[in-house]
Write a structure and sequence with these properties.
The protein is an alpha/beta fold and about 220 residues long. It has one domain: P-loop containing nucleotide triphosphate hydrolases (Rossmann fold, 3-Layer(aba) Sandwich), CATH 3.40.50. It has 9 helices and 5 strands. It has a 5-stranded parallel β-sheet with strand order 2-3-1-4-5, with helices on both faces. Helix 3 packs parallel to helix 5 and helix 4 packs parallel to helix 8. It is globular. The structure holds cytidine-5'-monophosphate (C5P). Cytidine-5'-monophosphate binds next to helix 2, helix 4 and helix 8.
């Protein structure tokens, strides 16, 4: 794979609903980077898996090759059912391999109009972009994450209770942290950002301070 030289690469890992997506979008905007929410790709495949008749490695491959980043904004991917399905397909080594190239290409070869890339997910700092210029592990306590996700579901008019959201997040945390292949871990070289008690803007300020120091220092 061709790698663009002298680009800014930002790798973020986080458990579900910790606020990583929000921070990744701020980072992308501030530094003019391509943003890829890698969880959305697993959600697309999770959604495909719910249609058992059409689900095999060939259909997964076809689906991945047809993905356009702007189609990942599709609101139907946000349901809890699809999130859980995503977590289940994400345990499959072959499926992860199929998805890997698409992600690497976004990470290391973003379109010329961007200064670089920011990817968030579960295995970005540990597997996908080990050599990223910046590595963050963004987290928040489980109750904070559950109430944030519950409010998001309420806005989308999804019928789900707070307790169901809490239970589902705990289940996904367990699946994502304990799977054999590419489990969610905080790598030693990732900077920990705990968003529990900070506003979105306050979190970003922390991240920006860290990034500016290195970017300006290296220019
Ligand atoms: O981030 P999001 O909640 O959309 O991710 C859905 C699921 O996709 C996660 O719970 C995880 O199992 C899987 N995933 C993954 N590796 C990534 C991103 C997401 O295994 N890089």
């Amino acid at each position: 794979m061709r790698k663009r030289k002298n680009i800014i690469t930002v790798a973020i890992d986080s458990p579900a609903a910790a606020g990583a997506g929000t921070q990744a979008k701020y980072i992308a905007e501030e530094y003019n980077l391509l943003y890829l929410d890698t969880g959305k790709i697993y959600r697309v495949i999770g959604k495909l898996s719910l249609d058992k008749k059409k689900f095999n490695y060939r259909t997964v491959k076809n689906k991945v090759s047809s993905i356009k980043i702007k189609n990942l904004e599709d609101k139907s991917l946000l349901s809890d059912k699809i999130a859980v399905a995503a977590s289940l397909v994400a345990k499959d080594k072959k499926i992860r391999k199929i998805i890997k190239n698409f992600q690497l290409n976004c990470g290391y070869n973003p379109p010329k109009k961007y200064e670089g890339s920011v990817l968030d997910g579960r295995d970005i700092t540990s597997v996908l972009m080990k050599d990223a210029m910046f590595k963050f592990y963004i987290t928040a306590d489980i109750k904070t994450r559950a109430s944030r996700r519950y409010l998001e579901f309420k806005k989308l008019k999804k019928k789900i209770t707070y307790n169901e959201v809490l239970k589902s997040l705990k289940n996904r945390d367990y699946l994502d942290k304990n799977r054999r292949i590419s489990p969610l871990i905080k790598t030693k070289d990732s900077i920990l950002i705990n968003t529990s008690k900070l506003s979105k803007k306050a979190c970003f300020k922390k991240i920006k301070t860290i990034m500016d120091k290195k970017i300006n220092g290296s220019l």
